[in-house]
Amino acid sequence: MLRAFIPQATRIGTRSFHASRMNCIAVGELLPNVKVQIDSPANEVSSRDFFKRNKRAVLIGVPGAFTPGCSKTHVPSYLTAYSELKQKGVELVACVSVNDAFVMKAWGESLGVEDKIKMLADPRAEFVKSLDLAFDATGVLGSVRSKRFALLIEDAVVKKLYVEPDNTGISCTLAQTVLKDL
Ligand code: BEZ
């Protein structure tokens, strides 16, 4: 069918990867139903189902596994805040990056996330593109990557959204910011 040859993902200026949405996912929207991987490429889960299982969840998106800011500052802020997040009703903390599942698993082990943070792999960037939270990081990291973001999610619906204005900085997406809003 002709429709099959019409690209679904178009880039309009720097604003959007998806023709259907001009801006990133918004508060009140249901998460898209896109496959992400946990621990191995064979273990795929639907993003919507995964977050529906938990009443309240925090998902962070990061530009890359093992990058200095993500490894030394961003993810560790959620490990430090983990008990407080749990006390405030967060049942699931997850981290997604455009990396393969083996890398995400190794990165989680190196950070000592144990069962506290679920490490989700989005190797083809399909999930972050579906949120319109992807950006072209070809020059630095070799591919499209996730903007640095944090989402507070309840029953798979976005309740709060934090996106770094320069895509990769660490200003408004730390656990301390999310905690203040809980
Ligand atoms: C980081 O350190 O988090 C980072 C480094 C390069 C590109 C994006 C992020």
UniProtKB/TrEMBL annotation:
PROSITE patterns the record matches: THIOREDOXIN_2 (PS51352)
Pfam families recorded: Redoxin
Keywords carried by this UniProt record: Antioxidant, Oxidoreductase, Peroxidase, Redox-active center
Listed CDD domains: PRX5_like (cd03013)
Thioredoxin domain residues: 25-182
Similarity field: Belongs to the peroxiredoxin family. Prx5 subfamily.
Cited function: Thiol-specific peroxidase that catalyzes the reduction of hydrogen peroxide and organic hydroperoxides to water and alcohols, respectively. Plays a role in cell protection against oxidative stress by detoxifying peroxides.
Name of the protein in question: Thioredoxin domain-containing protein
Originating organism: Basidiobolus ranarum
